[in-house]
From TrEMBL:
It is an enzyme of class 1 (oxidoreductase). Keywords: Oxidoreductase. This is Mannitol dehydrogenase family protein. Its EC number is 1.1.1.-. It comes from Paracoccus niistensis. GO terms for molecular function: oxidoreductase activity. Residues 29-276 form the Mannitol dehydrogenase N-terminal domain. Pfam families: Mannitol_dh, Mannitol_dh_C. Residues 286-470 form the Mannitol dehydrogenase C-terminal domain. Signal peptide: none annotated. Coiled coil: none annotated.
């Protein structure tokens, strides 16, 4: 067993790839906020691949976080010199690689002083984020929620912000005062128009305390849209055991599938790595890629995740082996989602659906239905409901997606079909549970404007939702699936 560190790279098992570049000579160019498994399997890997080619030596990554729990990740990575073992899980076999593109992690402190200082350094030219799709402080109309306590705090205390965006604004303020150019802000979260949303959040927050700064960010900053894709399960005991089985003691390994995609708008104000040389795509059609991925993959997870967890099915690959749920997935995708998706150079909508089915069915990836069902209060409005709206506008069917929403409402009661308890699985779980239990008697109680807007008044959707939820409560999940598939 070899403990992962700079000193032990040369004695790792021969089958494990490791950095060929001199990590001591790397210079920072990127701060990444929200450093978890996905970033290390995705953006950090693309940068590492460039470094393996002798490129991007001045684009090393400094990790960062704004929540107390981020400090635990910092401790784990610090103990192994910021190295991560990535394990690719393919049905045909597995392989491992140590990624070394990250060279530090700023201390996590109240007021975010170290993070602000790091981003104010002119050597940092890009700040990337994975803070989840629900982390951008959006109001029901998708604008900045200026009434949120965190946003109010940062507007009133701009030098001691609570949020990642407040820290970015504070750092940009320092850069402007020192005569330095702004950095590029790059969202890597699953949001349609994620760069535009990041711009809205940063500029809107700055405008609350310093309108001149907001104008400067608007005029000189850059916020490219991007689409990111790779299935990356959470790390638990099985993943820790797997990396040790491979001969490495790594306290923060990452497992991932054998597929990655990153499509980026080429809109950077202070330079960028040549990520396309590592397989990324720079394109002016990011929105088409985003729509395809979010509607087919991310919404597809919501189509199957709640139903599977309610039935006690633990993993996505096992879910795809369930004939009813697999049929539900394909029918809803083909009839209610694909009609609203545009082809991209690499895939027609039908070919992309085939790809997603194969990826979901990968038995080597232990991606849990619980992880997929997490934070439905952000994921359903962002991933599922846009297809409902398009279907209503075009006259396409929406009954399957109405069933998906009814399954979510049933899930949020907190009890599986076998009577076992579903532990809280959403930041807003208590409110969701109260609403879900009320909806057991009055289904329309679930269709609140904050989530559904005017869909509650759209009879084709609301009537189908009510019928589905009543059936789920009266006869169970299997009956609800059977009724839809027989229709």
């Amino acid at each position: 067993m070899t403990r992962l560190s700079n000193a032990t790279l040369s004695v790792l098992p021969p089958a494990i790839l490791r950095p060929r570049y001199d990590r001591a000579s790397l210079r920072p160019g990127i701060v990444h906020i929200g450093l978890g498994n996905f970033h290390r399997a995705h953006q950090a890997w693309y940068t590492h691949c460039l470094m393996q080619q002798g490129l991007a030596q001045d684009w090393a990554i400094i990790g960062a976080g704004v929540r107390p729990h981020d400090a635990a990740m910092r401790e784990r990575l610090a103990a192994q010199d910021w190295l991560s073992t990535l394990i690719e899980l393919d049905p045909a076999g597995r392989s491992a690689e140590v990624v070394g593109s990250m060279i530090g992690y700023v201390p996590v402190e109240e007021g975010n002083g170290p993070l602000i200082a790091a981003m104010a350094d002119p050597s940092i030219r890009i700040v990337t984020l994975t803070v989840t799709e629900g982390g951008y402080y959006l109001d029901p109309e998708k604008g900045l929620d200026t009434a949120h306590p965190d946003i109010r705090h940062d507007a009133e205390h701009p030098d001691r912000p609570r949020t990642a965006f407040g820290a970015m604004v504070a750092a940009l303020s320092r850069r402007r005062a020192a005569g330095h150019a702004p950095f590029t802000g790059q969202s890597c979260d699953n949001l349609q128009g994620n760069g535009a949303i990041l711009r809205q959040t940063a500029v809107g927050l700055a405008r609350l305390s310093d309108p001149a700064l907001a104008d400067w960010i608007e005029a000189h900053g850059a916020f490219p849209n991007s689409m990111v894709d790779c299935i990356v399960p959470a790390t638990g005991p099985a993943e820790l055991a797997l990396v040790r089985e491979m001969g490495v003691e790594d306290e923060a390994p990452v497992t991932h599938e054998n597929f990655r995609q990153w499509v980026i708008e080429d809109d950077f104000c202070a330079g960028r790595p040549d990520w396309d040389r590592a397989g990324a795509t720079f394109s002016n059609r990011v929105h088409d890629y985003e729509r395809m991925k979010i509607r087919v993959l991310n919404a597809g997870h919501q189509v199957i995740g709640n139903a599977a967890d309610l039935l006690g099915i633990e993993t996505i690959s096992a879910t795809m082996q369930d004939p009813q749920i697999a049929a539900l997935f394909r029918r809803i995708e083909q009839t209610e989602i694909l009609p609203h998706v545009h082809a991209v150079p690499e895939y027609t909508p039908a070919a992309y659906l085939d790809l997603i089915e194969r990826r979901f069915a990968n038995p080597a990836i232990r991606d849990t239905t619980r992880r997929v069902a997490f934070d439905g209060s952000s994921r359903h409005p962002g991933f599922v409901l846009p297809s409902v709206r398009d279907g209503l506008q075009s006259g396409a069917p929406v009954a399957g997606l109405a069933l998906v929403e009814a399954l979510w409402a049933r899930y949020c009661t907190g009890i599986r079909e076998d009577g076992s308890v579903i532990e809280p699985n959403d930041p807003d779980w208590p409110a969701l549970q109260a609403r879900a239990r009320a909806a057991a008697g009055d289904p329309r109680a679930w269709l609140v404007p904050a989530v559904y807007g005017d869909l509650a008044d759209a009879r084709a959707f609301a009537d189908a939702f009510e019928a589905s939820l009543r059936l789920l409560h009266a006869q169970g999940v299997r009956a609800g699936l059977e009724s839809y598939l027989a229709g």
